[in-house]
Amino acid sequence: MPARVSEAFVLRTYPFQEGDLIVSFFTRDQGKLRGVAKRARKPKSPYGSALERLSQVRITYYQRENVELVRLDNAELIQTQFGLSSSYDAGLALDYIAEVTEHLLPPSEPNERFYRLTSAVLADLRSCPSEMLPSATWRAAIYFAYWAVRLTGILPELPVSEASRELAFEISTTPVAELGRYPWSKMFASDLRRALNREIEMHVERKLLTVPLMEAL
After folding, report:
1. Which member of 72, 94, 116, 171 has the lowest number of beta carbons within 10 Å of its beta carbon?
2. pLDDT digits (tens, 9 = 90+) for 174-206
3. Coil vs helix vs strand at 144
4. What are the domain boundaries of the chain?
């Protein structure tokens, strides 16, 4: 059984047995997978901080046919989001991105454009000065939600204001890093944000835990 090596974002981890973790991760070439990381909860874990939420890693794993869980062998850290951990707003944006990706994407279906979307939104958050992170949080949430529903083929006719329709069109044609001129806030394009979140929740048939937390900001 040859090892596979993929670039991936870690989405979520779950305790498993004594000292192990189940890791949900989104690879560039194989889509969303889940696997067992042996000894990942031990004091001398071989994974270090590589399995933190939305860490970008080069992950080595073994995959057997007709077996749901792969076996993780190694995770080499490419890019951490640790620098955003001091901002509660940015932390919620990271939780939101991870949660939407975890529940919206089907397993084992490659989606290169969704992977690049995640990478671009995270890079935009990391590039923001600390005083601009509250604004960047809303930019990340709306931009990511719009493209998440579009790239998974569920973008409906949105019942939103004309201004929000114009914003949605600009999001569809403009990189996230070039949208900084807008006054992003909780009130900005709130009808668009809520419509997108409703569509995601309807599709995954569950309430997103991060949505009420963001609405409470």
Report:
1. 116
2. 999 999 889 999 999 999 999 999 999 999 999
3. helix
4. 4-79, 83-215
